[in-house]
Design a protein that fits this description.
This protein is mostly helical and about 190 residues long. α7 runs antiparallel to α8 and α8 packs antiparallel against α9.
Length: about 190
């Protein structure tokens, strides 16, 4: 009888988060990708990425831009019929990609822009995020994306102007304290 290897598989590494084992239950329905506001910028939909993880395609997955474009809106997680913690898995993939040395500044600029918007407005400003990203990194694609963006604005799915949340001062205080704790090495 052959012994089971104690070396964790790529799937084990990805699932090493609370609820991560639910990834095995993915039925490849595509709800996650269809729910994603930044899905058009991803080189693989979350569904495709999960199939690649199941196939053990470590390097291809960790070189993907998919998890870097995740804006942590949790639409995919909320809508997943299998209750897979998709957003948390995207964070885990970011960690694994950084550990493997696949981190690049051009990919993370999208995340940094998103964080900057949250710090300024308390939420993402999707039109500004997408427009800024495409103009900076994919200027020709921005032309192709404009009808989609304008259609979303016309249907009330995106706003032309950013909207600040109520209680922005409290959020900024929380974020400031989190940065202080991080600098102190408290987490």
């Amino acid at each position: 009888m052959a012994e089971k290897s104690s070396t964790p598989t790529f799937m084990d590494e990805v699932m090493a988060i609370p609820g991560g084992e639910r990834l095995r239950t993915c039925i490849q329905c595509g709800t996650c990708g269809g729910s994603c506001p930044s899905g058009a910028a991803m080189d693989h939909t979350p569904r495709e990425l999960f199939a690649m993880i199941l196939a053990g395609m470590r390097e291809e997955v960790l070189r993907s831009n998919t998890f870097w474009f995740c804006v942590s809106c949790y639409y995919c997680t909320i809508r997943c019929p299998q209750d897979i913690p998709i957003t948390d898995i995207m964070y885990q993939l970011k960690r694994l990609a950084i550990e493997a040395g696949y981190y690049t500044a051009s990919i993370t600029s999208f995340s940094e822009t998103f964080v900057g918007q949250v710090e300024t407005y308390g939420r993402s400003f999707e039109l500004g995020l997408a427009t800024g990203h495409y103009l900076r990194h994919h200027p020709l694609q921005s032309i192709r994306m404009s009808p989609l963006m304008l259609g979303m604005v016309a249907r009330g799915r995106m706003s032309f102007t950013p909207q600040r949340i109520r209680g922005i001062r409290q959020l900024r205080a929380i974020l400031r304290r989190a940065k202080e704790l991080e600098e102190e090495g408290a987490w």
